[in-house]
Specification:
Shape of chain A: globular
Low-confidence stretches of chain B: none
Helix content of chain A: 40-55%
Structural class of chain A: alpha+beta
Shape of chain B: globular
Mean pLDDT of chain A: 94
Order of helices and strands of chain B: EEEHEE
Radius of gyration of chain A: 17 Å
Mean pLDDT of chain B: 93
Largest sheet of chain B: 5 strands, antiparallel
Distance between the termini of chain B: 40 Å
Number of strands of chain B: 5
Number of helices of chain B: 1
Distance between the termini of chain A: 25 Å
Oligomer: heterodimer
Low-confidence stretches of chain A: none
Largest interface: A-B, 18 and 19 residues
Strand content of chain A: 15-25%
Strand content of chain B: 25-35%
Largest sheet of chain A: 4 strands, antiparallel
Structural class of chain B: alpha+beta
Helix content of chain B: 25-40%
Chain lengths: ~210, ~80
């Protein structure tokens, strides 16, 4: 295994690419983005130190999603073939990977639910909570353009939602970053879009 | 010439400042963006039950240009059954 540094917006895995490495973030946070050749795509999930990038089950596996760095930082990586061999020989690794995949599928389900049934403000609140969970930071360096891609809205939609959350005292936005001022308030705004995948993760990953 | 434009929104109850801005080839391209954005924002407003039809975009260029685009320019409103 070796350690790598990632910059904001770096695409560590590109949709359709054969997976060369499996990444385990240390303090970086990545977004999993589903996209087509003609669209910017939409975020379907995220992972940080609590998780890992797309794994290889069989050598030569390709990723269906793009992984893009949303909070810069470091990660550990392991060669994909070595990982897939360990997955078959180490029962404990196999089990934890399986549990994590189940937790991620629940996260994906709730992201789909929030994209379909929640307002931009609610989705932004959820996104900020999830980013804070993974980065352990109160101030998240973020440009609206990137956030617009994550939430699949135009940039002006992010500007508006940010204004609303700021008006409620939940966050403070300056150019290039968002600071979480009142997590309780964000939880209230995110409502049921946040919480279930997090509780399921805790349940699945505890022994 | 690529220039940065700030897409501020003047709503009837608030001024929403675009802190970051975005680059466009021309002010016409920025105008196309706010037309598309106004449609999206009006859709979101409609879902809340309150449509702010007085809302407008104020496109402010780094070069000092200033263009106002009312949200209403982004939509056609039919009030009459016979209207085509």
């Amino acid at each position: 295994m070796d350690r790598v540094e990632f910059a904001l917006k770096q695409e560590i895995l590109h949709r359709g690419q054969v997976i060369g490495f499996v990444y385990f973030p240390e303090d970086c946070v990545c977004s999993l983005v589903a996209k087509t050749d003609t669209s910017d795509g939409i975020e379907v999930g995220m992972f940080g130190a609590e998780g890992m990038s797309d794994m290889v089950v069989r050598p030569g596996d390709r990723t269906a999603l793009s992984s893009i760095v949303q909070v810069a930082g470091s990660a550990w990586r392991i060669d994909a073939e070595a990982f897939s061999e360990l997955l078959h020989t180490q029962r404990s690794l196999n089990e934890i990977a399986l549990r994590y995949k189940e937790a991620v599928s629940i996260q994906f389900a709730y992201t789909a639910l929030s994209h379909g049934s929640f307002t931009i403000e609610e989705r932004l609140a959820r996104w900020l909570l999830m980013s804070q969970d993974r980065s352990q930071r109160e101030t998240i360096p973020m440009v609206h353009e990137f956030l617009a891609m994550m939430l699949a809205v135009r940039r002006s939609g992010v500007t508006t939602a940010t204004h609303v959350l700021e008006g409620l005292g939940a966050i403070k936005a300056v150019r290039g970053s968002i600071t979480i001022r009142d997590r309780e308030k964000l939880l209230e705004i995110a409502g049921e879009s946040y919480g279930v995948p997090e509780a399921e993760y805790d349940r699945l990953m505890s022994y | 010439v690529i220039a940065k434009y700030y897409l501020h929104q003047r709503r009837s109850t608030a001024f929403i400042r675009d802190l970051e801005g975005a680059e466009f080839d021309s002010v016409d391209e920025a105008r196309e963006e706010v037309i598309a954005a106004a449609r999206e924002l009006l859709s979101e407003m409609a879902l809340t039950g309150v449509l702010d039809l007085a809302a407008r975009f104020e496109i402010v260029g780094e070069d000092g240009s200033w263009v106002v685009v009312p949200f209403m320019e982004a939509v056609r409103v039919r009030m009459d059954q016979d209207e085509t």
